[in-house]
Each structure stands twice: as C-alpha cells, then as structure tokens.
Predict the 3D structure of the following.
Amino acid sequence: MKLILDGNVNVYYIQTLCMIFFPGEKFGAAEQEAPDAPMLSLRLRARNGGMEAAVTVTANGKSASATRFLEDSEHHTGEKTAKLVCGLAVIAACGQLLGYRPSWGMLTGVRPSKVATELLRQGLSKTRVKKILASEYSVIPKKAALATDVAINEQKIIGNPGRRDCSLYISIPFCPTRCSYCSFVSYTSRKLLDLIPDYLERLMTDVRQMAAKIRELGLRLCTVYIGGGTPTILTPDQLRRLLSTIAECVDVGALEEYTLESGRADTITAEKFAVAREYGVNRVCVNAQSLSDEVLQNIGRCHTAADFFRAFAVARASGIPYINTDLIVGLPGDHFHIFAKSFDQVVALRPENLTVHTFCVKKAADILRQDSHVYSLRGGDAGKCVDYTQLRAAQEGYRPYYMYRQKNTVGNFENVGFALEGAECRYNVYMMEEVHSIFAAGAGAVSKMVDYTPRGGGKPVIERLFYPKYPYEYLKDDSTGQKTAVMEAFYRQHGLLD
C-alpha cells in the first residue's frame, strides 16, 4: 500500500490503521511502486488552537476524503492530539470508501483495555469511560463496554503490585504436528524432536540459574507458567524430571498459580496429569479450537472432537483444580451454527477458564501459503460468533478478565479470556499488563524486566532479554549467566531492592 504523509505523523500508527481496512497489505518499497496498490495520503497541520488532518484514500479506482479537527486540550499532549485527529480522519475516509466501520475504531494496539484503564485511574466513572471510548476513539458501544469491564476486572486481579514481585516462564517449543494457522516457534520434524532430551537438560540448568538469582535478590515469585509449543509433548518421565527440578528451586506451595500449558488433546494422558498434580501444578489447558472434525482437519489438528472430550475428562479426573479451554472464531470452513454448537458443548463442561480467540493470519503460517485470500475485512459471521460467546459467557457466570488483539485478525475482532469468579489466570494479566518482571528460560523465551512504578514517576520502565529462537541455537548459547547479571543490575539501578 502506498502512503503519502505530510506533517509530523506517526507512520507506524497510520500503517496499523490502514491494515484494519486493507488486511494483509504491506508498506515496503515494492508496494510504493506498484501502480494498482491502494493509496492513502494524509496532511496534518496545526490550525486555530488545534490540529487538522485531511485524508484521501484510493482503491480499485474509487476515492474518498475526510477532514477532521481537534482543539488542543489540557488532557492531551500535542502528540496525543495529533494521533487522535489522524485516527478520526483515516477511519472516516476509509470507512466511507469501503462502507465499513471497525468495531474498535482507531484503537490498534495489543491492549484495547489500556485506554479504559488509564481513564479509570483518573477517577472517571464506568459510564464516562465508555462514552469517551465511543466518542473520542470511535469504538462501538458494546466494545467500549467490554474494554471497560476487562479493565475493571484486571485491576481487581493486579491490586497493588509489589516492586519485588515476578513470574517465571519456561519454554517447551515443540509440537507433535504444526497447525496450519500457527506461527509460533515450535518444532515438529523427527530430527528436531530428537533434540528434546538435550534441550531438557539445558533448560533445567537455566531454570536453576534463574531461580537462584530470584532467591538471591529476595524477589517474590508469584506464578510459574510452562508454555510452548505443547509442553505435554514430553513423556511422563521427562515431565517428572522438569517438574522435580522446578520443585527443587522454587517454593511451589507459595505460588499464586502454577500452569502447565497442555493444549493438544493428542498429547494428554492420565499419567502426565498425575505427575503434574503430584508436583503442585494447579492449572492446565485442554484446547478444543473447534468441536467440528471437519474444521479440525482443515487446520491440521491431528485429533478429533472425541479426543478432546476424552482429554478433558482426564484433566477433570486428575484433580487439577483449574482447566482452561480455547476456541477460535473464524477458522476456515467454520460458520456460526458450527461454532455456537462447539461453544455450547464446551460451556457445558464448565471449565474454569474459557479463552475465545479470533482467527489471526500470521505471515509465517502455513495456511497463508495454501490460501492467500484468507484475510477478511468484515469477517463473515465471525462478529456474530464473538457476540454469541460474550453473551453466553455472561449468562453462564463467566467474566471477561483478559483481552488482547492482533494484526490481521478476521473482522478485526479481539481475543478474550473469561473465568468463573476467582479462577482467573493471573499470569496472563501480569504478562499482558506488564505489572511485574517475567523471567524466562528456553528457546524463543523473552525475559521482561519491569519497574512498574518508577520512583520519579512516569510510565513503567521495561527492558527485554532474548534467548535464541531455535532449539539448536539455544543448545549452543551460553548467555544465562550474563542474563542473570543484567537482571540484577536492572533491579539495583531502579532501586527495586531497597
């Protein structure tokens, strides 16, 4: 897509706005030269005590224009005013051209509840926050209400975070097969799966070093999350070795929660969950994605709906108290009646957590190579499916407590975590809201060091440390000692140990 920008404009923000209306578009040099590419021109000017943005967008031989003006406000910086007025103009021009109003308006970030959180912290009422989201950000009313509810529930979970609070993420980036929509760094070939024994040895060494540094610094470990990939690809003996290593260096009984992301029904056994229960795991995932065998086959899931029900029964019988189940709206071959049936069947099982994702087309996903036309602006009946989940979840006593969005989702919809009262996954909130440090070990893992309440005031300070993405690179890496030294330096620099 071609962009012609005039003025002090946030280029990345304009690109993300354009991707709402033109999903899958790119903005490289080749696109700038393509004669038939969509084009957007924007002019931003200071005028009469405010900012004015004028936008013209052209696609498929048609054009539309819009001009918007915002007065300067004591509540917004000049940068914020410029961003808002540009967003209003782009939304108006593109919406006029395509006859489409995005449900999240000009909110393009990962955390659509962030604005609601900021407004609530200013002491505004829930009603006032919803009105501001609708009027200033062009969010439709039901999404404004969702964002506000999520923000309120998140803050109840977060409370007043301690400056020494932290969590630990442990990466198992292997899967038995790769789903066609997946872009995670996960490995499925026999040659790569053969790396698991060596990978596990290295991982346990790093977990010991990370945990030792957490103890040395006097930090409070709140949650441990073992993610993937599919961690239950490990054999029962391998899982026991990993969990026993964690138990050696972590006071599991003092954790707020301990999660094993199992996910795939074809990797779940009673023996593995018995091991998890023995070592104090109190949260697992049994993910359906869909309960239509045809849809599951379309996306490369090597299990059936019957396998899911078997795996869920195993999880419930294990005595592990919290189970999460994922479903995905908008999968290829799915439609409202199929999805609604899947959702109702899952709700009938009463998992403590339900996470409803919207199908997201990632650049590295196999499905994009199979079908380059999977991007969808309006999303077909995905919006109807999303609305159904939020209505039914409320009827069944589930509250939305966690939400994020991704680029190129079908219909530009959201991903929402629902939970029964008191059963929320705290790690998800801590990680997404960046309220304390998340230390990480394993291939593709990223440690995120956070000073949530800097002593001089201002926004949270965040630094990241990256492990190599690929297991064979990770096995050659020897940076854990360096990473733990950087962790300590960060905490001392920001006075978090005082």
